[in-house]
Amino acid sequence: MLSIKDGYIYNAFVEKNDLTRNMGEFIRTSTKIEPKHVEEQLFFVSKHPYNVISSKVVEAYKNGEIVLLYSAVKMPFSLPFLISKNNNGPMAIVFVSSYSRYVEATDTLDISAVNLYSLLEGAYINLKLTSSNRMEQNLPLMKTVNDVYVNMLGNIFDREFVLNLNIPLRNKVRYTLSRFFYDKIVGLKNREVSHNLSYNSLKDPDKDEIDRLKEQYDDYLDGNKIQNIVGLIKFINTIDSKLSGITASYFLDKLSFTYGGTSVVMVEYLPYIMFTIILSLNGSFLVNIKSLNEIVKNARDIRYFYNEISKLI
């Protein structure tokens, strides 16, 4: 499974924003937001739970597994949380100041209940589910998340190259995106399982064409040519001459424009894919884009999303 530091996008953030220094400065100058600072929001969640894991999420915050930090130093909006370690083991750190305002007069954090809870839930799922790679233990959940991922990225290619009028090429692109999700983002070790899952997600695929594409893709994997989004786009360039001109940078710009800045890191990092889905399901304003909400709403078996998560945590 790709860690956030393995990805092209995170390292681009490090270079562009001097992220390592800023993160150190953020933590050094930060104030820990305690439950007393968000008492009203937590009370609302307790009375109106968003889903079957809401109580576990709040409990994890109260017992210190999730830490909210507030600082005048701003972290990138698209990096809401990371996993760190202390003497008691891993914990999730949420950079909450990008999404809220501390009110000194009342000693409270000005943030809506839905946005606070969504940040906590995203961090909790990162901590309990994706950081230990339990995702591969639940096939229905993998399929649901893959459906969101492939449709989000695939729709960019559909619009750029009018692939709705070229179904064979559309299937090739979506097969490749799905393989990247299973092989790299989830980290499945069995390529045949990854291939079968990807093939079976397509609509009216040409088996011979997809089998040839599988061989080409596996050759790239064997050569370590698909390590991140850059390698993925370079492989897609080889599928057909129509796709040869698109670059990773252009693709990410289109993705950000279409779905918002919080969508960029999710291209390579499973916890942020999950976070994107969470924001949509909870109705958070942190992502309030109709096209994304439609993808999530119509994703395969999305109604079982939290039930499947609850089986793993």
Looking at this protein, list some descriptive labels.
14 helices; 2 domains; 313 residues; alpha+beta; single chain; 4-stranded mixed β-sheet; two-stranded antiparallel ribbon
Please, could you describe this protein's structure?
There is one protein chain. The model has no long low-confidence stretch (mean pLDDT 91). 56% of the residues lie in helices and 9% in strands. It has helices spanning 8-17, 19-29, 39-47, 54-62, 113-130, 139-161, 167-186, 191-200, 207-222, 229-239, 248-259, 270-282, 290-297, 305-310, and strands at residues 31-33, 66-70, 81-86, 89-95, 101-103, 108-110. The longest helix is centred in the middle third of the chain and has 23 residues, at 139-161. It has 14 helices and 6 strands. The radius of gyration is 20 Å and the shape is globular. It has 313 residues and is of the alpha+beta class. A 4-stranded mixed sheet has the order 1-2-4-3. Strands 5-6 form a two-stranded antiparallel ribbon. The chain folds into 2 domains: 4-130, no CATH class; 134-310, no CATH class. α4 (54-62) crosses α5 (113-130) and α7 (167-186) packs parallel to α9.
Helix content: 55-70%
Shape: globular
Number of helical segments? 14
Give the H and E element order.
Answer: HHEHHEEEEEHHHHHHHHHH
Total number of domains = 2
- Low-confidence spans: pLDDT under 50, at least 5 residues? none
Which strand order do you get reading across the main beta sheet? 1-2-4-3
Number of E strands: 6
